[in-house]
Please model this.
Amino acid sequence: MTETASSASKITSTMTGKMTGRGVNVFYGDKQALIDVDLEILDREVTALIGPSGCGKSTFLRCLNRMNDSIEICRVVGDIRLDDEDIYAPELDPVLLRARVGMVFQKPNPFPKSIYDNVAYGPRIHGLANTRAEFDQIVETSLEKAGLWGEVKDRLSEPGTGLSGGQQQRLCIARAIAVDPEVILMDEPCSALDPIATARIEELIDELRENYTIVIVTHSMQQAARVSQRTAFFHLGELVEVGDTEQIFTTPREERTQGYITGRFG
Amino acid sequence: MTDPATTDLAGKDRGRTTVWGSPEQARRFRARRRADQRLRLFGLGAVALSLALILILIGSLGYSGHTAFTQTHLVLDVTIDPAKVRADEPDTGNYRALIRGALWSLLPKVRNSADRNDLAKLASQGAPYILRDRVVADPSLIGQTIKIAVPVSDPYDQLHKGVIPRTGPEEERRLKDKQIAWFDDLVVQGQIESRLNWGLLFNSDSRFPELAGLAGAISGSFYALLVCFALSFPIGIASAVYLEEFAPRNRWTSLIEVNINNLAAVPSVVFGLLGLAVFIQFFGIPRSTPLVGGMTLALMTLPTIIIATRLALAAVPPSIREAALGLGASGHQVVLHHVLPLAMPGIMTGTIIGMARALGETAPLLLIGMNAFIISTSGGILEPATALPTQIFIWADSPERGFAARTAAGILVLIAFLVAMNLSAVVLRRKFERRW
Ligand SMILES: Nc1ncnc2c1ncn2[C@@H]1O[C@H](COP(=O)(O)OP(=O)(O)O)[C@@H](O)[C@H]1O
Ligand SMILES: [Mg+2]
Model:
């Protein structure tokens, strides 16, 4: 295990890490959910986190924007950096961190407000725009980037909850983009969607890669293979292997990775 | 892996001994159906019983209270004699003499002065004031003859409504034969009218049942509820938001929680004692006022609102909180922008139900003296007042026949307010039903 971790970090040490986790241990009360995870997230790439259910993928993802703070029994140990800045430093405000590291959740969760207000909410609380025209601009470009503008431009005042599941998820992506984050975290963003909506989101992720660093948790290995450049395989709270997606799926170094991607467990 | 399980099951199926349609099976089936039916009948019976009890309650209140919804009036032609009412001081005129004169002129045969005094009591003692108010409002009436309807006094009102007997031993009757004859004469003359009793809603309390109304109590209840709402709504929401959204889950918060739940179950009379000891005796807030009444009711309503608010907050899905947090909203923004607005319908519903309970509460108000005899509508939160339930309590205690009907009518008015409040809570809940 230590061997794996060090070999993984050797590979990545030459590249530019947008976010890095070193020796990350996470506990829920007495239960340890992550054990000594070392993982580097590269800039403007899609990193997929895969592994069987309950192995700690979401837990790791939620460490990256400190969403675990709101879980009272959750304790995070280790060093996690965004652009070499310790995100768990006491002087760092998680509110500002989350403006830089946005998140899209498993179940589409638009606010029960208008489509416009959904997208404008982030910019509003962070003071990213002042005039109505500026807000309009942000809303339009965000929806544009999320590939939703054409479908909703005539009904911006209708509730976001009235859209279809796939549209709701793209609205949530637009909402995250509107704050202009550097990293976008996605926790199984397609698991509640039908195949067509899923394909749409995957396309979108591929487009977003140009401007954003993306970390996506997925339980579908095909999806990981389709959208990601790098893949990290978690098992029972450990990071078993991380590498280029192609390498992970064709020549995994670890037996457990091999076993998982060929469907022998999980 | 699933295959062997299926074959196993099929194997068991083949070997089973149960035979559908055997007499023993049929018996079991019938017994089960009977048990189902019994349960349904029990439920139906319970619902029918409670409906019947409510109908009996409303019915008996309506039966004893309906007479209070009309009031027998005496129509008089009164000449406002400038000798008795001076134009420059219309409020000090001798209106009593005017009413008496008008009444006597209707029955000129009554000559002896004892009888005339007795006859004068046919009109309500409040009649001169009704006339005065008319003239003060419009002094140009002085010198003219006007038609005015005044309530008859309670015994005649009851006679007209058939509540007190006309026959039987005269010495046991409130009205003697002579008085009944006068009244009948007036009926024949067409001077007696039965009118809708608006005074019940628009008059304040009075010693005379024919004049007594609920206006003072309604305004007192209104001000007390205003104070109660102004205190318990913000404090209740703030406490609930803190407990539900921010407080750490530890021994202290669970202790507070248990105590709030217990507080909701404390008998209301205890809150009355507390209000008396703390608000009146310690802080010196004036007795009998809607201010102290509302503060006492707020103590009672607070736990209800806290509990309702916490339930409403807990019902807001966590995904909404996560969405806001994930965008970088701070704790107070998550609560104020998202959770609280979404919980508001539930909070309002709980608040209305709490206020309805406060409106019907009697015991604490008796302890802090909101059962004073007040003959004007409440002048604000610092003037002594009565409340609806305490007014009913006062009337129930009064010996006059007219008050018996008014007590029942007062209860019906109170119930009407309560039903209206509860209905608005239901409508609110329907209207803002969750849509996610
Ligand atoms: N809020 C929580 N409280 C307690 N245990 C949790 C919580 N969230 C996750 N866990 C535990 O942590 C482990 C990892 O969970 P998670 O990160 O959600 O796994 P994954 O997303 O890979 O399915 C699981 O064993 C799970 O039971
Ligand atoms: Mg997960």
Residues A 28, 33, 51, 53-59, 71 surround adenosine-5'-diphosphate (ligand 1) (CB under 6 Å). Confidence is low (pLDDT under 50) at residues 1-15 of chain A. The domain at 3-261 of chain A is CATH 3.40.50.300 (Rossmann fold).
